[in-house]
């Protein structure tokens, strides 16, 4: 998994928005460092140690396989983009991707880093697999939360909290649980005959996500890309299984850049990049084509004509991403059934400026490859076949790139903002700056939904930081309490 914290201005904005300086970059940085085991360097020098640490449970390292990274960094310098560590106070620039990997080359998620080592050793920790939370429960006649209702193996159960309940169900399901509990927009809850405990208009609103596309393929005369028909060999598998090395020891990308759009420049925010460009060095193959068909829900063979000229050749894509969208979507309940997925409407490109900026990110990506001496030396060029549905537009024009964006974009899975923290008294604030649900006792949220604005990078690192900082908030409130009195739970059929 890619480890990218976001830009310092992301957090400085949170602090300003909430009126709480605990969320400034300077103050959240120790929480990033607390969880990190930074293995991108052997030893931390004075400068690196300002931003990184080696004592945390989450290992951060470079992939063994670099792919196109060398060419990308070389080309970036032609456009005056420096090589950076994007997990510091960085300007625009490009870098080899930092990842969370275990020693055996497999992905390290929060389960492997935080939960697995202590799951059988903590007397105050009980894990319920195969469980679905329905709603939080209130003390009768009050807005004091006393536990949660959940189902497990077909039986409805209750977990009672002695201190507080913390929701960490993510930007989709945390607002869903709140609304099923009667906390949310009054009119929406009443339309489903849900008893309104608290009219909180911001619940489920403010949905943000990063949207990206795969621009390419860029065909070239070099074998630096990964081509499954050529490179998928027994020795490659053995290299990974025995040594944790090789092309399988990647997240599918090897370099990333952060650049500022003309919109950012016009807003006086050139120092705060709003576009991310990731390289993916997988050559076009039948399996890639079928994968895109499934991911984008294309009809069979729609992509075949587009990709035909690239098959059998070395090629790659760039993935431009809109990191600071203006558009806001929403989450709504479909029904009162806890097992039914909610309605998710990201409203991508609802704000026209997002489409313009995203089209600009595609144009920047194409120009980066075709106008750099580095990639010209590899004879790298975008195929001259128009994307299906965009044939009426001239290639390499803004109109073509806007059409391409509408036809071939997807979520980058960074849903955020649906239980946003803010200043108490603000109409749309769901949480205060201590992550407590405003208007309710003993209930917090800790996940990507708390972000007032999505960070301008991948959300994994930011979510871990929120958990670390949130844990301190809980400890500060209950520091005089005994550790293992946190939860009383029905232990039947654990």
From TrEMBL:
Q: Which cofactor does it need?
A: FAD
SUPFAM superfamilies xrefs: FAD-linked reductases, C-terminal domain, FAD/NAD(P)-binding domain
- Check the record and name the Gene3D superfamilies matching this protein: FAD/NAD(P)-binding domain, Glucose Oxidase, domain 3
- The record lists FAD as bound by 133, 413-414
Provide this UniProt record's keywords sorted from A to Z.
FAD, Flavoprotein
Instruction: Identify the residues that the record assigns to the Glucose-methanol-choline oxidoreductase N-terminal domain, covering every copy.
Output: 170-184
Looking up InterPro entries in the UniProt record yields: FAD/NAD-bd_sf, GMC_OxRdtase, GMC_OxRdtase_N, GMC_OxRtase_C
Q: Which GO terms describe its molecular function?
A: flavin adenine dinucleotide binding; oxidoreductase activity, acting on CH-OH group of donors
Q: Which Pfam families match?
A: GMC_oxred_C, GMC_oxred_N
Tell me the protein family, please. Belongs to the GMC oxidoreductase family.
What is the name of the protein in this document? Glucose dehydrogenase [FAD, quinone]
Origin organism is Pseudolycoriella hygida
> Gene name?
Gld_3
